Structures are given as structure tokens and as C-alpha cells.
Amino acid sequence: MIALVTGASRGIGKAIALKLARMNFHVILNFHSNKEKAEDVQKEIASLGGSSELLQFDVADINEVTTALENWKDNNSDSVIQVLVNNAGVTSDGLMVFMERENWTKVIDTNLNGFFNVTAQLLKDMVISKYGRIINIVSISGLKGTAGQTNYSASKGGIIAATKALAQEIGKKKITVNAVAPGFIVSDMTEGLPEKELKKMVPVNRFGQPEEVAELVGFLASDKASYITGEVININGGLYS
Ligand code: NAP
After folding, report:
1. What is the 3-state secondary structure (H, E, C) of 38-59?
2. CA pair distance 230, 124, nearest whole angstrom
3. Secondary structure of residue 83 in the 3-state scheme
4. Whose CA is nearest to atom 33 of ligand 1?
5. Residue 184 Cβ < 6 Å to ligand 1
6. Quick check: 41 pLDDT over 90?
7. Is the pTM for the entire model greater than 0.85?
8. CA 78 to ligand 1 center in whole angstroms
């Protein structure tokens, strides 16, 4: 089976790609600009005896997404991407009172429109094949809202609502759509945060590891998760539920 992970060159996406490769998926590793890191992930998968390929595109750019995925389909006409992990995401934090429109647009274009751009490309083939798993990496911010992140919170909240709506549209076709909402996870995205202070707010008293998120995604991507759809699953050490 074939899985596409967007933003698979680093952090949570990398851990998910490795997990899916261990589960014997052929993994399409999408990345934006960090080719070297993406190649490292590909090498790591190969060293595990797994199978993967690189596919560069900017999820925010509908033309790039369409071209890359159409080309992939032309070159793999007998294959269907049946597992999609919409993981690529960015932040551009700041209080709304000072926020420039471009900080708003960048985050909405990448996170929310990126979800649409990629999912819309793959949905029809999943429907025809009558099987699919769509897993959207959202955030605690999309559930509770986070001060300093109105743009990011809106983008993730939008994906959560879309997850619930899409799950209802395509459940009959044996396609599940779920969202995974991490709290603080160690990655480049959280690198600048004061971890010592923030972890005091987390009941388990630490940040999570990307691999812990990947385990949950691996389960949702599996056959065993066929009766879970339209859900938002928190993974945040007890920070919020
Ligand atoms: P990260 O370490 O910053 O990695 C981001 C990944 O997304 C990279 O692979 C990057 O590719 C890719 N990416 C960024 N913009 C892209 C674009 N326009 N098109 C394609 N790929 C793009 O982030 P992370 O912490 O692993 O976060 C992964 C997901 O989890 C995000 O959706 C984030 O919002 C969510 N999340 C993270 C946390 C956390 O605490 N870390 C918490 C809640 C939710 P390049 O390497 O090529 O730049």
C-alpha cells in the first residue's frame, strides 16, 4: 500500500514516514525546500529495509501540487495512494493587533488550503478504490485557540471542521478521515519555546516526542482503525481535552 506524508523531511512528518515504512507502506515523502533532510529520511527508510520516494511540492501552491501529483499518477497508473497524512504546517506567530495580512495568509494558505490542495487531488481515486485513510495533523491550538496564534488556530480549527464534514461525505466508501491534535512536541517548530517553563503546564511534565505522535497516526492509518472516523484525537500529555 502507498502512503503520502506531506512535510516528511523533518519533525513529526519524518517520524510518521518512518513508522509507515516500518508498517510496510511504500511512503511518498513530500517536502518543501529541505531536499537534504528529505534524502536523509529516504536513506533511513532504506536502512530499515523499507521503500520510499521523494516528491517535492509546496502544499500551498495548487499548481505545484497538481503537477506533482498528476505526474506521479501518470508514472504509476496501476497504483493508488490510499493513505494520506496532511502534516505539512507552518506558524507565523504574533498578536492579532500587530499582525500583517501576509502573516495571516501564509499560515492559512499552507495549513488550511494545503490540506484542500492535496486532499482534493487524491480523493477521487480513493473513492474509486473504495478504501482510504486521511489523517490530518492539527493542533491543540485549533481546539482551544492560542493567544499569539490567531492565524494558526484558525487554520487548524478549519481543518478540524473539514475533517468532520469530509468524514460524513465519504464514510460509505470505506474512507476514514481523522485529525490528530498534538500539544507541545519536540521539533524545529517548538525549538525556540521555553520548554522548562512550559512543561510545568503539562500534566505528564514533558514535551512529547514526534515518535509518540507517529504511533497514533500509524494506528489510524491501519486497517484496525476502520470504525474511527470524523474524530479529533488529542495527544498532549494531558494539557487539554
Ligand atoms: P517542522 O519540524 O517545522 O516541520 C515542518 C515540515 O513541514 C517540514 O518537513 C517542512 O518541509 C514541511 N513544510 C512546511 N511548509 C511546507 C509547504 N508549504 N509545503 C510542503 N511542505 C512544507 O514542524 P513539526 O513540528 O514537525 O510539525 C508538523 C505538523 O504538526 C504541522 O502541521 C504542525 O502544525 C503540527 N503540530 C506541531 C506541534 C509541535 O509542537 N511541534 C504541535 C501541534 C501541531 P521542509 O523541511 O522542506 O521545509
Report:
1. HHHHHHHHHHCCCEEEEEECCC
2. 19
3. strand
4. 89
5. yes
6. yes
7. yes
8. 30
Catalytic residues: 152
Query: How many residues are listed for the chain in this entry?
Result: 241
The pLDDT confidence band at residue 241, using thresholds 50, 70 and 90, is confident
Look up cell 536502512; give the residue.
47
182 lines ligand 1 (CB under 6 A): yes
Residue nearest to atom 44 of ligand 1 (CA): 139
- Tens of pLDDT, residue by residue over 88-103, are 999 999 999 999 999 9
Residue 8 has pLDDT above 90, yes or no: yes
What CATH number does the domain located at 2-235 have?
3.40.50.720
CB-ligand 1 contact for 187 (6 Å cutoff): yes
Query: What is the DSSP code string of 131-198?
Result: -EEEEEE--THHHH--TTBHHHHHHHHHHHHHHHHHHHHHGGGTEEEEEEEE-SB-SGGGTTS-HHHH
Radius of gyration over every alpha carbon of the chain, rounded to an integer in angstroms: 17
The Å distance, Cα 172 to ligand 1 centre, comes to 31
Residues 155-207: tens digit of each pLDDT: 999 999 999 999 999 999 999 999 999 999 999 999 999 999 999 999 999 99
Point out which residues pair with 52 in neighbouring strands: 27
Residue 129 has pLDDT above 90, yes or no: yes
